[in-house]
Amino acid sequence: MEKHQWGIFINSVFFVLGFGIVFSLVGVLLQSVLSNAAYTVQKWLGYFGGVLIIIFGVYLLGLINLPFLDKGYKIRVKRKFKYPYLTSFVFGSAFAVGWTPCVDAVLGTILTLAATNPSSAFKFLLAYSIGLGIPFLLVGLFTAKSSKLIEKIGDKLKYLNYVFGIFLIVMGMLIFTNQIRRIASIPFLSSLLIYFNAGGTNFQGLGIGIALVAGLFSFLSPCCLPLIPGFLSYLATTANAERGHNGT
Q1: Residues 158-172: pLDDT tens digits?
Q2: Portion of the chain with pLDDT greater than 70, in percent
Q3: Nearest by Cα to 94 from 73, 120, 64
Q4: What phi, psi does 62 have (nearest 5°)?
Q5: How far apart are the first and last CA of the chain?
Q6: What is the helix (H) or strand (E) element at residue 229, kind and residue range?
Q7: What does DSSP assign to residue 66?
Q8: Helix, strand or coil for residue 90?
Q9: Helix, strand, coil share (%) of the chain residues, nearest 5
Q10: How far apart are CA 225 and CA 132, in angstroms?
Q11: What pTM was computed for the model?
Q12: What is the DSSP-derived secondary structure letter of residue 175?
């Protein structure tokens, strides 16, 4: 790999670290604040969380309009960056606040899931960060191929909204009725949970798996992929700035 390509990849690493740390800190905050909440409070959080996740699912199906989720965020690329890695880190942190509608909807689901299970909040948000971060790292590593692939499959990925929307509705109903652990009894899923469990409860393993997939879905969502060319432009600009700063 050429030095210029390494510069792009390293900037993408700092970008992922930026939003990963913010998401993880949110998980720590939820865990510390809600872990000692009374059983009654956690029970009502389950009711509220189940309804909220159902609403997110209906939104992804396009059946309702939620204005606060319909805000778009454009990538504004500056010409010069004095500290490109720091800029990438800060930009990734800003991304964690909310970049696209789909990230907001899906991340809102994971935050709700974390709030209803505060003891696992940090692991859920960390898993979401990993799921969302891996594709960004791959894009930074294979910039040219990523652009071509995104152009080919971008229009077809809109159907993922419908699939994930239905999944969220089912999951929300199970959380509302406190039956979410039933998913772990499905033979195929129960075998997969062994790899996510790490000594925790079945639901903890299930939640980590859901959060990981949710992160991947956030990247593959139709409203996130169109912004990737801008992300690539940003990485290339910061890498060029670094190369110019080093005099190469």
Answers
A1: 677 788 888 888 888
A2: 64
A3: 73
A4: 80, 20
A5: 16
A6: helix 228-245
A7: -
A8: helix
A9: 80, 0, 20
A10: 12
A11: 0.78
A12: H
